[in-house]
Amino acid sequence: TSTSTGEAQVPLGTAYAFAILAFDTVTNVNNPGTIVTGDLGISPGAALVGFPPGEVVGVQHLGDAVAAAAKVDLLVAYNDAVARLGAAVLPGDLSGLTLTPGLYKTETSTQLSAGNFTLDAQGDENAVFVFQVGSTFTSSPGTQMVLGGGAKASNVFWAIGTSATLGTNTISTGTFLASAAITMNTGAVLEGRLLAQGAAVSVDTNLITLPSP
Fold this sequence. Notes:
With 213 residues, the chain is mainly beta. The chain has one helix at 65-83, and strands spanning 18-22, 25-28, 35-37, 39-42, 47-49, 55-57, 60-62, 88-89, 98-99, 102-106, 110-112, 116-120, 129-133, 137-139, 144-148, 156-160, 164-166, 171-178, 182-184, 189-196, 201-203, 207-209. It contains one helix and 22 strands. The strands form three sheets. Strands 1, 3, 4, 6, 7, 8, 10, 13, 16, 18, 20 and 22 form a twelve-stranded parallel beta sheet that branches.
């Protein structure tokens, strides 16, 4: 499936430095083993639960002015992503699909229910993928997002109208900008960002790493 190329990156502003950004709470639900590489912020709340044993390899901004500014920039970024026009249709299930760079949209929800979903930059390391998801995104246990053709996690953006859930032992990529909550289940791995505007972020024995530029 293909769509128009030439999408610009979503401008994250000061939210760029954050691997996790939440509205009220960030919770490491269960076990040690969660490692967040990048800054962690909460605003206007400040509740950080389960760190330690979770580890943040970065700066924590809990209810401070830096987190507040990043939340403002997050809203700007989300509005930029969802306002873009000319999107191709994003299917309700991404299983087994390969998508090329561009803008994709579903008015409702999408999922990765089985196997792999491939993002193919077709040799262009600057190629950008933007996904406009009207409601929820869910990945089932063991599924993977695969980068191909020089694609970079730093150029993948998911604008989620409500919440996102990354399933147990999944591998995901890109910056998730969600209106509500974001949940990573046990053992899930992300190269990207969890940026939740209006609710909490929950993690559980996860590796979350800011994408390389």
